[in-house]
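User: Could you check the structure of this?
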Amino acid sequence: MSGKEALFGKSTAGLVEICNTLDLPRYAPAQITDWLYKKNASQIEEMTNLSAEARHRLGEGYTVGGVKPIDVRRSVDGTLKYLFTFQETPNCSPVYVETAFIPEAARATLCLSTQAGCARACRFCMTGLQGLQRNLTAGEILTQYARIPEKSMVSNIVYMGMGEPLDNLDAVLESLELLTSTTGYGFSPRRITVSTVGITPQFEELYSATRCNIAISLHSTRPAERAAIMPVEKKHPVKKTLDLLKAQRERSSRRISFEYILFDGLNDTPAHARELVSLLHGIRCRINLILYNGGSMNEFSPSSSERATAFQQILNAKGMIATIRKSRGGDIDAACGLLSTKKLQDQ
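Assistant: Sure, the predicted structure tokens are below.
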């Protein structure tokens, strides 16, 4: 650690403030932005269209930032699971953060983490069992995209890794700005999805401040049952989020999806499927049914393929778009939190 502040992850507005403080030319922020997000500079000295004096001033208090992953695991299905370590200051313990790259025939999806650990304590999630260590900065979120070898192959990005994005909303919005702006990486918001358990009023801010797609982790149709596996339901009932979506349905064309992990004998009955149809009535959406992949470190088991298919058929018969998404990378601990949990346990 150099003890210097990282430039990577700062917007043009943030760079303007830095350059004004250092009395750099008015065109310097645009030049630095270009070096950070278009030319992938790794050192300030590479920014050769800045004068030597400007680079010197910048280098006294700042560094480019952005680290490479420390480990990668490769699945037989092509999924890659990267492990990053981020260290905010020389005196703090490093945090371990996971990023999954999931290639498919027509697209390649990158799954980004927004926190080291998570405070929401969902019982089926290994990240939640870690507890929250700290929020990631916008730069640390973007590093997971910018510093992997497959960067040029990424067609879609999901904020669906470690952590709850709405608990770190400022950094998430900053990173989304850089991903979608023409001076940043230029992604279409339609190719970015933010996944959340549904927390108001942060959900309302995300909805109004961005045009990205939204995925809501539902996992049960029954408040008491959902609260038993997702404590967030007690303080932030998902019905509040659903009511907001129903109120907005005529004014937005963004894609809304619901994640529904099928747990054997818990939430996978025909009655649950019928309740899901009723619960989501009035929301134009799709439902991703997920076969659970929690590894041997968790108490839950996945539904059988027969029960999953029966669940899907009930939804489809009622006119709902529902697909079964098989978990990827089971042989490399690709589910959220598994790899970092093992790393923490090994220390």
